[in-house]
Design brief:
It contains 9 helices and 14 strands. It is an alpha+beta fold and 379 residues long. The longest helix is centred in the C-terminal third of the chain and has 29 residues. The radius of gyration is 29 Å and the shape is elongated.
Length: 379
């Protein structure tokens, strides 16, 4: 969450920000649930407990997020950088860290990395849960970061939050009560030596939406269609046997029929199954249409059309056009974040006498998609 134009990180400002963040976290939690497969279909119940109620999740939200993340940074970003920076990046396992950043961007709409120094005095940074992050920015054209607040839920029955506040020179810890009405300092201010707010912010575009956020209604519809098609099959299996003109049939007669697998009827009587007629072709068409719309709006290719087929490089580029548009946008955002990350590293390294310019570092992205030597897509 972003707070623009805060003049100071005082208690009223932070309390208001935490209250607003709790509301935003409902949305973030919903997106994280859908990535993990915790969809609304799982909450469906019928008043008639004997009615089939399959609750099947066909999780394209996870597929979309995983595909875009792997496509952009599945091959780790490489750097043309001075040795001191390369060592700092390697020490922080920057390849895995950047992958976590892009994952949070495509799922939750933004990501944050927090810088700190470990017990050996080395610079470290870690990707944080977006639900814990509040960014404070100027409301001018530059939108510089002026502060950062991290909130971490305290376990029940204590409740409330552990709140850590960062500005461009110091950090301090507080606790916030469960009613989010006040802050209590639990540490003194301490200097962090980064010369700036020690956080890198990666917004997934101006709207900060997850890549599958807008297809959630389609995902819900697909889950229902698939679940209800299985419900219809179960209803068919449990169909009623109608014995017409055989009112004298007893339970013993039915038991004998089941045992012998034989049914004797009079000339004026008949037996048949009472079944619901299902339009299987229509159901399949509906499933295919929903699946196609989900993939199109999620900006990822249909892998069923690619896997195992020999597709030319030009055809593959065409199928990946919408994915590449998204990837290029994410790449630009991550590049800006990397520039800030390197700038923070340089500010600390300059204290040790290393005189370098962060603009010397050039990140190189490589798309993670397998192409054969003959410009053909391979398995």
């Amino acid at each position: 969450m972003i707070v623009y134009g805060a003049k100071a990180l005082d208690t009223p400002t932070i309390i208001k920000a935490i209250q607003d963040k709790e509301k935003e976290n409902v949305r973030i939690g919903h997106l994280q649930d859908y990535y993990e497969g915790k969809h609304d279909i799982l909450l469906r119940h019928y008043e008639d407990s004997t009615k089939p109620n399959n609750r099947i999740v066909v999780n394209y939200c996870k597929d979309i997020a995983d595909f875009i993340t792997a496509y952009v940074v599945g091959v780790p970003v490489t750097y043309d950088a001075p040795e001191a920076i390369e060592k700092a990046l390697a020490y922080n396992d920057d390849g895995a860290e950047t992958q976590d950043v892009v994952h949070d961007m495509v799922v939750c709409g933004f990501a944050c990395e927090l810088f700190y120094t470990d017990e050996n005095g080395d610079v470290r940074y870690n990707n944080l849960d977006p639900a814990e992050c509040i960014i404070f920015m100027n409301d001018d054209l530059q939108s510089d970061i002026t502060g950062f607040v991290r909130i971490v839920k305290r376990p029940d029955p204590i409740g409330g939050y552990l709140v850590t506040v960062y500005d461009d020179t110091h950090t301090q810890d507080f606790v916030c009560d469960s009613a989010v009405s006040g802050l209590t300092a639990v540490s003194e201010q301490s200097e962090h030596h980064f010369g700036d707010v020690p956080v890198v912010f990666y917004p997934n575009g101006q709207d900060m939406q997850g890549n599958f956020e807008q297809i959630i209604p389609l995902q819900d519809a697909l889950n229902k269609v698939v679940s209800d098609s299985v419900n219809d099959w179960e209803s068919f299996v449990d169909s009623y046997l109608v014995l017409e003109g055989m009112q004298g049939t007893t339970p013993e007669d039915i038991a004998e029929m089941k045992a012998n697998r034989v049914l004797l009827t009079d000339a004026d009587s008949k037996a048949y199954w009472l079944t619901k007629q299902a339009d299987n072709d229509r159901v399949k068409t509906m499933q295919d249409d929903l699946r196609t719309m989900i993939l199109e709006l999620g900006n990822v290719p249909d892998m069923q059309d690619i896997t195992g087929l020999s597709v030319s490089g030009e055809a593959m580029k065409f199928r990946l056009t919408k994915t590449e548009i998204q990837a290029s946008r994410i790449e630009r955002i991550v590049t800006r974040g990397i520039q800030r990350k390197v700038e923070l590293l340089y500010k600390v390294l300059s204290l040790t006498g290393d005189n370098m310019a962060y603009t010397e570092v050039v990140p190189v992205f490589t798309r993670n998609f397998i192409m054969g030597e003959s410009n053909e897509v391979t398995e």
